[in-house]
Amino acid sequence: ARFRFINQQLYTSSSREAAQLFRSDPEAFQIYHRGFAQQVGRWPENPVHRIIRYLRRRPASLVVADFGCGDCKIASSVKNKVHSFDLVPLSPLVTVCDMAKVPLAAESVDVAVFCLALMGTNLQEILEEANRVLKLGGTLMVAEVASRFEDIRAFVNAMAQLGFKSISK
Ligand code: SAH
């Protein structure tokens, strides 16, 4: 129940409020992550494994940014240079920051990933940040549960307005 409550909070507050929540209540983060792992463990497929398979098929020279990396499954599973960002460090590979403002230079990554991490009501700001750090022609990968979207077509259209062309859905 606490996991569901925190999950709902993360999806209905801004990324700054989420950062504040975890700063003021570190236990909330532990509870959230235990609940998250349990929930994903019941699914037929964890999308992070699909993203890992995709990266392994592409050149290892590609630089990756993992927004909302959790326990850094991507960084620990591929040869690529992976910048892993989260609010709290579940692993030493994490750079702690709000994903609306990551410490990367503009046009410095080839692949940006949001795996079950497109949270926060300031989505536009977060996606603009991904756009900023991506090289021209880079790839953005988003994995989310379908119920998160009121209208997937509207989401894809909004992404186009932010400068992303849909390659596959
Ligand atoms: N991508 C990982 C974890 C998904 S859980 C995986 O698929 O296994 C969602 C993660 O996003 C959590 O670890 C949460 O702390 C993080 N997160 C949520 N809001 C964030 C924000 N504003 N900045 C950075 N990380 C955030």
UniProtKB/TrEMBL annotation:
Which cell locations does it reside in?
Nucleus, Nucleolus
SUPFAM superfamilies the UniProt entry points to: S-adenosyl-L-methionine-dependent methyltransferases
Enzyme superclass (EC): transferase
GO BP, one annotated term: regulation of transcription by glucose
Q: Which InterPro entries match?
A: RRP8, RRP8_N, SAM-dependent_MTases_sf
A single GO molecular-function term is:
methyltransferase activity
Enzyme Commission number, as recorded: 2.1.1.-
Its primary localisation, in coarse terms, equals nucleus
The UniProt function text for this chain reads: Essential component of the eNoSC (energy-dependent nucleolar silencing) complex, a complex that mediates silencing of rDNA in response to intracellular energy status and acts by recruiting histone-modifying enzymes. The eNoSC complex is able to sense the energy status of cell: upon glucose starvation, elevation of NAD(+)/NADP(+) ratio activates SIRT1, leading to histone H3 deacetylation followed by dimethylation of H3 at 'Lys-9' (H3K9me2) by SUV39H1 and the formation of silent chromatin in the rDNA locus. In the complex, RRP8 binds to H3K9me2 and probably acts as a methyltransferase. Probable methyltransferase required to silence rDNA.
Subunit-structure text: Component of the eNoSC complex, composed of SIRT1, SUV39H1 and RRP8.
* Protein name per the record: Ribosomal RNA-processing protein 8
* Gene name linked to the record: Rrp8
